[in-house]
Amino acid sequence: MKVLVIGGGGREHALAWKLAASPKVQCVYVAPGNGGTALDPRLENVPISEPLELAEFAQRESVALTVVGPEAPLAAGVVDLFRARELRIFGPTRAAAQLESSKAFCKAFMQRHGIPTARWASFGDAAAAHAYVAQQGAPIVVKADGLAAGKGVVVAMSLPQAHAAIDAMLDGSALGVHHNDGGARVVIEEFLEGEEASFIAMVDGEHLLPLATSQDHKRLRDDDEGPNTGGMGAYSPAPVITPNLHARVMQEIMRPTVAGMKRDGIVFTGFLYAGLMIDAQGNPKTLEFNARLGDPEAQPILMRLKSDLFDALMHATDGTLDQVELQWDPHIALGVVMAAAGYPEAPRKGATISGIPAASDDLMVFHAGTARDGERLSVSGGRVLCVTALGSTVRRAQQRAYEGVDHIRFEGAQHRRDIGHRAVRR
Ligand code: AMP
Ligand code: GLY
Q1: Which residue in 124, 107, 125 sits closest to 116, CA to CA?
Q2: How many CB atoms lie within 10 A of CB 27?
Q3: CB distance 295 to ligand 2 below 6 Å
Q4: Ligand (nearest to CA of 230)
Q5: N or C: which end of the chain has fewer CB within 10 A?
Q6: 346-372, pLDDT tens digit by residue?
Q7: Are 147 and 190 in contact (CB under 8 A)?
Q8: What is the mean pLDDT of residues 220-245?
């Protein structure tokens, strides 16, 4: 069978790599893919990204299954378009993807269905937003309503910071923030303290199949300092999610979300990702939902998956996820992101990359912002590589991943040295 993965980041490299391992899969197309998917002989890059062209390609090539990686094509309605042509695709419809693409939609949904989350209010009017913040006090969190590629959230530790964030986000020209229909809006939210974790499940509209848990590292620099990024590294499992907490997250957050979407008439299919904050007493709250796999969470999670991902996705698109049980490697998987100079504000492209170690049973370098030009591999995006390793302990996985990182060279490379630090300290 032929499979199509939409996207070109590290998450999509991991999805394609795992799908290619299925004996039922003869070819994996990646659209548009990256330098890493170009290097793997089992994968084939297709230089298209428009939903209509993708559907035409899938039809022409008799693609049996398409999986969507990033949020942008979901919000553009790629799933609706494929389904209208009776093409099998795993992902949420445009309406269901609003759980991620509109923070205001998501917060109203959680409130309606009693899903634990931070207190909030939503504003289109700057004066009202400023007055609310002044009344609530700092710390407080200001979020742009639309998709903002990880740049739409300001955790303001002081009031001036909060006021500045409101002005920046409600200004139509704010850098990289995509406003939803109806214009600029901000969501202002209670500041939550605790430890974050990523909880991701496959959803077929009715049934949920949780994946292994994970933890991301959002800040650019060690000790969780510096600006927010798309994610500088992740590991799986996340020990903060104890078996008891896992059961509570399923019971209080994940199942009510899938049931609530169905009740609202917006059946959710696809990867459902809850970004959780666990407080000191061990109570989970939902910071956000994403309607896709996490990046870089997907890289360590998929490295631990022993079951056939193609089979699971076929069940997920047949509505029979209740018949699937996933097997996980008991090892810890840990991925370290290497980012371009200038990331996240202004990543510098073009540097030559060398020294990538060969894949082995316990090490895999997933590519993201890389491009292949003949024999030369170069930097073409903000997050460049995710060096992912397996180990019997967090420390061993960490050591193995950093051995890989230390072989790799490109000008201005940035990475954190402390990925997994919370699990090491436990
Ligand atoms: P989001 O895109 O909503 O996940 O926000 C990005 C990051 O901002 C999260 O991973 C948290 O680190 C932080 N954050 C978001 N909302 C809150 C909140 N209510 N309280 C504290 N930190 C938050
Ligand atoms: N790593 C966080 C995300 O994918 O949104």
Answers
A1: 107
A2: 15
A3: yes
A4: 2
A5: C
A6: 999 999 999 999 999 999 999 999 999
A7: no
A8: 96
